[in-house]
Amino acid sequence: MRIKVGFGFDVHQLKEGHPFILGGVNLEHHSGAFGHSDADVLVHAICDALLGAANLRDIGYHFSNTDERWKGISSLILLKECVNLLAEKGWTVGNVDAMICLEAPKINPHVPAMKEHISTASGISLEDISIKATTNETMGFIGREEGVVAYAVCLIER
Ligand SMILES: Nc1ccn([C@@H]2O[C@H](COP(=O)(O)O)[C@@H](O)[C@H]2O)c(=O)n1
Ligand SMILES: C[C@@]1(CO)OP(=O)(O)OP(=O)(O)OC[C@H]1O
Q: Quick one: which of 137, 132, 138 has its CA closest to 23?
């Protein structure tokens, strides 16, 4: 069996009064992530990790942020498309491990629901999806709650 590793990163601005979709969960918060799609930074990082592992470029290459088809789209749909792109090349996903860097709100209570959404959209087993979070200890743009960052790594196999 051949295995490959992938890495993904994404960042989005937080804006007052904007919806905050993270891992497919609509978080109740005074501000939310802004982007062309639903700006789900966690799912975007996972998409880029998967595409990177398969050497299939990146999320913006396949789903341009100037294309009206993707305006406001659920990133879980883009994730499913990424998994399909990998499947076309014979790849299945081994596991995904992700890290969200966010000052507030607390992510821990929402992790089970996020994993459910990601698993349902992608077909990746729940036990192969790990989601973690950290604050930035009040420092920088994350600390000032101006933005949210996510990192993800994955293994793929065929
Ligand atoms: N948005 C966040 C940030 C952190 N957590 C959880 O809190 C723990 C402590 O965070 P520190 O940044 O103070 O080290 C962290 O390990 C996470 O379990 C969270 O749920 N949501
Ligand atoms: C997801 C896409 C497509 O709508 O747009 P955004 O929501 O702005 O997100 P980004 O992280 O900039 O990734 C690029 C695009 O693929």
A: 132
CA distance linking residue 97 with residue 150, whole number of Å? 11
Mutate which of 13, 34, 37, 46 for ligand 2? The one with the most ligand atoms within 8 Å of its CB, which is 37
Nearest CA owner, ligand 1 atom 4: 134
Tokens 């950290």: give the residue: 134
33 contacts 41 by C-beta, under 8 angstroms: yes
Pocket lining: 48 vs ligand 2, CB cutoff 6 Å:
no
ipTM of the complex: 0.89
Among candidate residues 78, 67, 83, the one with its CA nearest the CA of residue 123: 83
Q: pLDDT averaged over consecutive 10-residue blocks of the chain (158 residues)?
A: 98 98 98 98 99 98 97 98 98 98 98 98 98 98 98 98
